[in-house]
Amino acid sequence: MPPEPPLISCLMVTRGRLVPTQFALDCYRRQTWRNRELVVVCDAADSELPAFIAGLGDPTIRYVNTAHATLGELRNVSVEASRGTFLCQWDDDDLYHSQRLEFQYGELMASGKAAHVLSRWLMWWPEQQRLAISSRRFWEGSMLVHRHALGSYQAVARREDTQVIADMRERGNRIAHSDQPFAYCYIVHGANTYGTGHHKKMFAKASEIFSAEEYAGSLEQFETIFPMRGYREALARLGRGV
Fold first, then answer.
1. Where are the domains positioned within the chain?
2. How do residues 60-118 score in pLDDT, each as one tens digit?
3. What is the pTM of this model?
4. Are residues 116 and 108 in contact, defined by beta-carbon separation less than 8 angstroms?
5. Which of 18, 24, 140, 179 sits between 20 and 30 A of 47, alpha carbons compared?
């Protein structure tokens, strides 16, 4: 942690679901990086999130309601509303280690590059009781980037973050990566942007898979890092988890 840490803007776009967004909010509030903000952009007029966020009493979280738009357009709204020197994608349905921002900032600064991503992350499928560590690639959802290097997202419903990284690289920006899979937990919860077929492929390509016998014990260990128990119970109440 530098003596005067720069402002990092965590950018969350959401369709307004309280579950599982409340757990991504919890992970944000646990971050060790002091100088941070969370910009929550939502295009649902009837969302429960504004009241929930107001109840947190956290001045670093700002809620922005906007007209219905594609995922890429919503990400651009979040960038425009942010104030940070650095921007971090903060998806509303995943979970994050409390030192994620601190770790990625340190890796980014050490690299001297424009952005930093994780090369692997933890994957969890509660309904199927599956845990794995992903294949090795640039996981776009984990990006921390210098504001000046980002550019704009395309107005598309999917793969907007993949394309923005491709555009950055085409402009000559280099991307650093680190193998720290326990900084980020990607979750299959039944209402993801991509469907079951996509997630089956992700697990089939995993670099490490926790066996059925290892699942319960591993989950108990990971619950010391991520708020997985509450997440799992909330999904079970919705009929989408075990």
1. 8-237
2. 999 999 999 999 999 999 999 999 999 999 999 999 999 999 999 999 999 999 999 99
3. 0.94
4. yes
5. 140
Instruction: Tell me how far CA of residue 230 lies from CA of 53, 119, 213, in angstroms.
Output: 18, 27, 22
Strand ordering across the sheet containing 130-133: 95-96, 184-187, 122-125, 130-133, 208-209
**What's the distance, CA 88 to chain centroid?**
8
Question: Given the structure tokens 């989408």, which residue do they identify?
Answer: 240
Residue found under tokens 């969370």: 38
CA 231 from chain center: how many Å?
Answer: 15
Q: Which two tokens stand for residue 66?
A: 């906007």
How far apart are the C-alpha atoms of 132 and 115, rounded to whole Å? 25
* Residue 219 near residue 227 (C-beta atoms within 8 A): no
